[in-house]
Amino acid sequence: MPYSDIIDNRNIKLRDEVNALLGSSDEAKIAVGYLYLSGFYQIAEALGELKEVRILTGNTLQRETVEVLAQSLASEDELVDAVEAGKVQKKSVKEGIVNDVAEAITRNLQALPHSADRERNIRRLSEFIKTGNVKIKVYTKHPLHAKAYIFKYKKEHAEANRAEGIGIVGSSNLTISGFHHNTELNTYVRGQNNYEELNKWFNALWEEAVPFSELLANRFEESWAIKTVNPYPLSPRKGQAQDP
């Protein structure tokens, strides 16, 4: 099969590509419209090997706010001006938007069937956040439709690829569907100039976003996986079979 930069989740799975790049990188930056724990689980093990991971997520609930605003304005030009001015936040202050995201993730967490693997991953992610290895922010100014995965190579990989890093952009959010569903489409973005442009774009949004790590860590601490009595061993004893 000829080489391709296209990640179609049919012949090439995004999960496999992201995990491979995490293994050859020191840092990663991820920007997605929304995230679910199912997506975290797909990369949880690899995240612990990196020096820093920054995750920027949006809030799809803002789409409703834009539609309500559109109905109240006389012209399309007024709507464009309002969105560019950040007036879509009139309905909900930044703290409210961040809480919306936290509630959505909490509902996702509560709805997941309990298992030893999920418990280990939740505990692992909670620890990453508390130690600062994983930092998370919510972008509240406008809906965040972009999906970008940006990787800073380890030194030897940077030299081999003649670039500090590489990016993947496309349609996939940080969810299990984004990593596996065959109607998603993503592509590699290669070269030093493109890597620098992706970093510049991400860093600008990151500076405008609202910190979310502490709030999410608190939700993890209150979850069934951490607060309740642990019915599963975090690692199997010698001779003990792991969960199927």
Output the keywords.
244 residues; Endonuclease, Chain A; 10 helices; 8 strands; 46% helix
CATH architecture: 2-Layer Sandwich
Strand order of the largest sheet: 1-7-6-5-2-3-4-8
Coarse structural class: alpha+beta
Superfamily (CATH H level) name: Endonuclease Chain A
CATH class: Alpha Beta
Query: What is the share of helical residues?
Result: 40-55%
Structure explained in plain terms:
- By secondary structure, the chain is α+β, with helices and mostly antiparallel strands.
- The chain has a single domain, classed as Endonuclease Chain A (Endonuclease, Chain A, 2-Layer Sandwich), CATH 3.30.870.
- It has 10 helices and 8 strands.
- 30% of the residues are buried.
Task: Summarize the entry for a quick read.
The protein has helices spanning 14-23, 37-47, 62-72, 76-84, 94-111, 116-131, 155-161, 176-180, 192-208, 213-221; strands spanning 6-7, 25-32, 52-57, 134-138, 148-153, 165-170, 186-189, 210-211. With 244 residues, the chain is an alpha+beta fold. Strand 2, helix 2 and strand 3 form a beta-alpha-beta unit.
Question: How is the secondary structure organized here?
Answer:
Layout: E1 6-7, H1 14-23, E2 25-32, H2 37-47, E3 52-57, H3 62-72, H4 76-84, H5 94-111, H6 116-131, E4 134-138, E5 148-153, H7 155-161, E6 165-170, H8 176-180, E7 186-189, H9 192-208, E8 210-211, H10 213-221
Parallel strand pairs: 2-3, 3-4
Antiparallel strand pairs: 1-7, 2-5, 4-8, 5-6, 6-7
Helix pairs in contact: 1-2, 2-6, 6-10
